[in-house]
Design goal:
single chain; binds flavin mononucleotide; NADH Oxidase; 9 helices; 13% strand; alpha+beta
């Protein structure tokens, strides 16, 4: 039992420690094995019907990051953090997406495709009549679930992170060639190590108290 209390306390400490970093130490890089762990976590994030309707771009090329910064209201995190993750949503989901997912089920769970045909039928029947707006809206929500998990994992590793919506998605799409991939940029996360000069690390967290945040009915 003592172990559980320690874990609970530790998680709250991790979440208190994290904040949305504004100024990164440009000399510090996240070790490759931690990035690999982030990828493992993102791979396991749950999504609606398991469709994983997104792609995570890890932007390494400095010139591209410089270009993206121009479309992010010149926020320095875009170029100065160790890593930049762009969470991209599929704009539409055509029949192939569903078929690929069923096929993956068949391979991973070692189930013949024929046995999955009723499941495939119902999956498509319930999801394929959505409008493009509904699909994109749902896909973007899935990105935010992934973002949340990444932020928490980063904090556990004591890696700093900046979730960011302050960018022009259409410009990101253009720079990253996303339309050709049926993708659009949804949200961004810069990751790295805070600069000692970032004054925001000393600011107290502003959060509603639990009485205002929760209601038991
Ligand atoms: C989805 C999302 C988008 C955000 N976009 C930006 C952004 O573009 N620029 C920025 O400086 N902070 C951004 N933030 C940081 C928030 O302002 C910050 O998380 C919030 O004020 C709470 O502070 P804390 O994260 O430091 O605890 C964003 C946060 C989230 C969750």
């Amino acid at each position: 039992m003592q172990g559980i209390f320690k874990t609970m306390k530790r998680l709250i400490e991790d979440l208190q420690w994290r904040y949305a970093v504004k100024k990164y130490d440009t000399n510090k890089k996240i070790p490759a094995e931690i990035i690999e762990h982030f990828k493992d976590v993102l791979r396991l994030v749950p999504t609606s019907n398991g469709l994983q309707p997104y792609k995570f771009l890890i932007i390494e090329t400095p010139e591209i990051r410089q270009e993206l910064r121009k479309h992010s209201f010149n926020q320095p995190q875009i170029t100065d953090a160790s890593h930049l993750f762009v969470f991209c949503s599929y704009k539409t989901l055509n029949e192939t997406h569903y078929d690929d997912y069923i096929y993956l089920n068949s391979v991973i769970r070692e189930t013949p495709m024929e046995q999955l045909s009723t499941y495939a039928f119902h999956l498509k029947a319930s999801l394929m009549n959505r409008t493009e707006d509904q699909i994109l809206n749902s896909n973007e929500k899935q990105c935010y679930i992934a973002l949340g998990q990444l932020l928490q994992t980063a904090a556990i590793h004591r890696v700093d992170a900046s979730p960011m919506e302050g960018f022009i998605a259409s410009k990101y799409d253009e720079v990253l060639g996303l339309p050709a991939k049926n993708l659009t940029a949804t949200v961004v996360c810069a990751l790295g190590y805070r600069s000692e000069e970032d004054i925001f690390q000393h600011w107290k967290k502003v959060r509603k108290n639990k009485e205002d945040l929760f209601e038991i009915i």
